[in-house]
Amino acid sequence: MTQSIETIIIGGGQAGLATSYFLTQASREHLVLEQAVQAANAWRNDRWDSFSLLTPNWSFRLPGAEYDGPARDSFMPRHEIISRFEGYIARYRLPVQYNMQVSSVEPCPNGDGYRVRTHETELEARNVVVATGMFQKPKIPAFAGSLPARIEQLHSGHYRNPAALSPGAVLVVGSAQSGCQIAEELYLSGRKVYLCTGSAGRAPRRYRGKDVFEWQHLSGFLDRTVDQLPSSRMKFAANPHLSGRDGGRTLNLHQFARDGVTLLGKLQDGSGNKLWMASDLKENLAKADQFEANLVKMIDAYIARAGLDAPEESLPVLRDGFDAEIITELDLHKAGITSIIWAMGYRFDFSLVKLPVFDGDGYPVQQRGVTDYPGLYFVGLPWLSAVVV
């Protein structure tokens, strides 16, 4: 017999657990279906050993478990994040069921509610909240399979530490948050690093006396919704490179070049020992520089508008990357590259929802998480309204 329940939440990450917390507080019947076998799966299995949150501890705001420790402006290490998620579930007795991979969500035949299928059971619910996030499928180019078998290839989600890689130089593909953090850790460990850049921006760790995320929070920058972005495509933009390591610091591609990293343009193709890159390195560097300039200009305007007492500051201007040789063809063997880390991000996949609730990009059509189908909701999407109603 099919089990019926008022609400099913698909995904036991931060968004799913927060939703469960509010339903628990309201004594509403629900289940959280999590495909992993343990809590905090993304933090436990898809982050490297030295990973720390990029946002300060004060921004850790699971409802009912907001950070209240002494290290407000520090950056939580991976093991603490995992511990906090485990403690949160136990403290509030959230009804999480593990190893429950949902294969489909579709309307019940009678039109009342939804049928949710997993690999081992079938459930019916009046409400379904999709909290699976945006990181379902690692991005790895098709030509990766044509590269030499001797080359160790792994996605950034499977990278752990420099010692776990084969001896030799490393190519990191992607210069957003993960790619830059991993590239820095590798070259600080003594590895020769090649870095294929993209259009991701750069943000200063601190500016005019505060962490950059605090300025973004105070100014309302982080409260924008998709319709308030300069372009709808901006909801897919890569996060700017930044680090929470060792108390947090700015990552700068020009500094990477100064420290010996070989910067390359966007990777376009590969076969055998050869890779081909676009000649867009300088354009990518300029975009990163401009992103930072626009961000501090926005912060300056907010400080002036709010009449705040924040001493003016000039950020360092580095240009080393512009002096780098433009390389459009790379021989992996001659460069001594033995490992490639694909730090190109993830593709989202909401195909488990068998309803026409997506735009041309496959992104859910919703208002504040509410779809046009009664009882079907999405939470945890980028630039979704953070206002609780």
Question: How is this structure best described in words?
Answer:
- Helix content is 23%, strand content 20%.
- The protein has two domains: 3-136 and 348-378, FAD/NAD(P)-binding domain; 139-342, FAD/NAD(P)-binding domain (3-Layer(bba) Sandwich).
- With 389 residues, the chain is an alpha/beta fold.
- It contains eight helices and 19 strands.
- It starts with a strand and ends in an 11-residue tail after the last strand.
- β5 (114-118) and β6 form a beta hairpin.
Summarize the structure.
This protein is α/β, with parallel strands linked by helices.
User: What's the gyration radius in Å?
Assistant: 22 Å
Largest sheet: 7 strands, mixed
> Order of SSEs, N→C?
EHEHHEEEEEEEHEEEHHEEEHEHEEE
What is the CATH H-level superfamily of the largest domain?
A: FAD/NAD(P)-binding domain
Count of β-strands: 19
Secondary-structure blueprint:
Blueprint: E1 3-10, H1 14-25, E2 30-33, H2 41-45, H3 78-92, E3 96-97, E4 102-107, E5 114-118, E6 122-130, E7 137-138, E8 152-155, E9 169-173, H4 177-188, E10 193-196, E11 206-207, E12 210-211, H5 212-219, H6 253-258, E13 262-264, E14 267-271, E15 274-277, H7 281-306, E16 329-331, H8 332-335, E17 337-342, E18 346-347, E19 376-378
Parallel strand pairs: 1-2, 1-6, 2-3, 6-19, 8-17, 9-10, 9-17, 10-13
Antiparallel strand pairs: 4-5, 5-6, 7-18, 11-12, 14-15, 15-16
Keywords:
single chain, alpha/beta, FAD/NAD(P)-binding domain, 8 helices, about 20% strand
